Amino acid sequence: METSAGTFDPNQPGWQGLHLTPEAAAHIRDLAEQQSGFLGVRLGIKQTGCAGFGYVLETVTEPREDDLLFERDGARLWVPADAMPFIDGTEVDYVREGLNQIFKFNNPKAQHECGCGESFGV
User: Fold this and answer.
1) Is Iron tagged as a keyword (predicted)?
2) How far apart are CA 119 and CA 3, in angstroms?
3) Backbone CA torsion sign across 116, 93, 7, 76
């Protein structure tokens, strides 16, 4: 399993950043309206699952020094710089699947995913 996808320098050409869909931005804004002190969401990764990596979402009340900020329509998404080589170019969406509503990650760096969709590999 590969545990490194390179390094990230936002000043170098070729990096795409992350993209929030209008639905994801709306949901993040809704969360911010419901929670005092909520600034946005942090998207990170961790080693987990059968494919190698999983996405980790957490609320942000104070950004970290190494966080990169992506915004759309007032919604804020922070990403730790060390996660960017694994998720650069990812579209973050918020969708309804049956009775569930979830964030979906369309990651062009993911070469494979596990059968349940909970983890990915690069």
Assistant:
1) yes
2) 14
3) negative
- The pLDDT score that the predictor gives to residue 58 is 94
The Cα 112–Cα 49 span in angstroms is: 12
pLDDT confidence of residue 110: 79
Place of tokens 């998404």: 77
Asked whether 75 and 20 are in contact (CB, 8 A), the reply is yes
Query: Under CATH, domain 19-121 is a member of which superfamily?
Result: HesB-like domain (2.60.300.12)
Q: Would you state the structure tokens that stand for residue 54, as one six-digit string?
A: 């999983």
**Rounded Cα–Cα distance for residues 4 and 47 (Å):** 11
Longest Cα–Cα distance in the chain: 42
For the full predicted model, state whether its pTM sits above 0.85: no
Bridge partners for 78 per DSSP: 42, 69
Helix (H, G, I), strand (E, B) or coil at 87: helix
Per-residue pLDDT tens digits for 10-55: 566 678 899 999 999 999 999 999 988 999 999 999 887 665 788 8
DSSP 3-state percent helix, strand, coil across the chain (nearest 5)? 15, 40, 45
